[in-house]
Amino acid sequence: MNDAAQPGDQTDERVKQISSIRKALIRPELGGIVGTVAVFTFFLLFAFDSGMFESQGVMNWSIVSAQFMIIAVGACLLMIAGEFDLSVGSMIGFAGMMIAIFSVTLSWPVWMAILVTFTLCIAIGALNGFIVVRTGLPSFIVTLAFLFILRGFTIFLPQVIERKTIIGGVRDVAEGDWLAPIFGGKILRGFFEWMGEAGLIGVFERGTRAGQPVVDGIPMLIVWAIILVVFGHILLTKTKFGNWIFAAGGDAEAARNSGVPVNRVKILMFMFTAFCATVFAVCQVMEFGSAGSDRGQLKEFEAIIAVVIGGALLTGGYGSVIGAALGALIFGVVQQGLFFANVESSLFRVFLGVILLFAVILNTYIRRIITGER
After folding, report:
1. Which among 9, 94, 132, 192 is least buried, having the fewest CB atoms inside 10 angstroms?
2. Closest listed residue to residue 164, CA positions, set 88, 95, 100, 90
3. Is 296 exposed, middle or buried (0-12, 13-18, 19+ CB in 10 A)?
């Protein structure tokens, strides 16, 4: 007597089965995770005794990584939506210069200079997006134009107003301002003082700061990086708008037919990218106390590389904010790690090129797995 076939005994041949290994391979964070493990393993082996993993060393590469993370979050969401923004680096320089001109040259309150700069830069981001969606021009071309426009203004304005390309004195005028510490302050100072007293972290042994901890707090730059990464991850993975971002970058026409406001999504992502660039700029100006016309150069490409390392496809519709954050962490660790390992710092650019090529090849393979292409 034959047993009756049960509904769950057979697999529907119409459903393509994916092995657990292939499921792991198509996770966008895979490249970032592998790269992070490899980089930390390398420097633990070759730079452990150099001070790289002591309190000051950790703070150094954490700050650099945070800089990359801030702009990588905006670039990631925009790339998943199917667009690029090559004006990010120029936006950083432009925003910093505007804050310096408003606060130092025009004697505005620093809080007003910061808020007006945010408004101006976000409006420029909206203009970028509006031109892209209304004209149908590639975002590569539109934002490349703004790269030159913003950089030109960043050089021209201080020369005309101050007859120089660097404007200092921002830290002085920011004294007592209520908004400046949100971008240029530090948190957990008491906790780090306690760790110094307990011998958990290094302290200065001589001078006016004798007995004080070498690291006296967490800069707001790092706090902003964490906030933006968490916000971007939740937005992308836990909200309807996140689904719209994926849809807009995956197949814009199909998304429109499904009721997704593709144009609005893209414009908002351009605005968010400008917001992230401005956050970077304000933190940088508050840290150095000055603005320079050369600030932010090549940052747009570093942001894109971090996003690609994090698993985003150049064609849009696929990526991860966590992956982009890991890509930024890799950059920060390598940039500072080469110094601690006594390796020529110019090789950092070589590393960027090699890892970009590797990431693109890996992402192309992943895309073929997803689409079934050969």
Report:
1. 9
2. 100
3. buried
Sequence-distant (6+) residues with CB within 8 A of 16 are 372
Task: For residue 210, give both structure tokens.
Answer: 């004798």
CA distance 319 to 29: 8
Give the helix ranges, DSSP H, for the chain.
20-25, 30-46, 55-80, 88-100, 110-135, 139-162, 170-173, 181-184, 189-197, 220-238, 240-250, 252-257, 262-288, 299-309, 321-340, 347-371
More confident residue, 288 or 353: 288
Nearest to 29, CA basis, from 230, 310, 235: 310
188 burial type by CB count under 10 A (0-12 exposed, 13-18 middle, 19+ buried): middle
Q: What pLDDT, in 10s, does the model give residues 68-78?
A: 999 999 999 99
- CA 365 and chain centroid, separation: 24
CA end-to-end span of the chain, whole Å? 46
Residue entry with tokens 């970077």: 280
**Under DSSP, is residue 188 helix (H, G, I), strand (E, B) or coil?**
coil
Cα-flanking dihedrals φ and ψ of residue 107, to 5°?
60, 30
Residue 273 exposed, middle or buried by CB count within 10 Å (0-12, 13-18, 19+): buried
d(CA 271, CA 77): 11
Do 246 and 342 contact (CB within 8 A), yes or no?
no
Return the structure tokens found at 315.
Answer: 């064609």
Q: How many CB atoms lie within 10 A of CB 69?
A: 32
Partnered with residue 291 across adjacent β-strands are 167
* 90 alpha-carbon distance from chain centroid: 15
Give the 3-state secondary structure of 328-371: HHHHHHHHHHHHHCCCCCCHHHHHHHHHHHHHHHHHHHHHHHHH
φ and ψ of 221, to 5 deg: -55, -45
Specify which residues 203 forms β-bridges with. Answer: 213
Q: Which residue has the tokens 């985003």?
A: 312
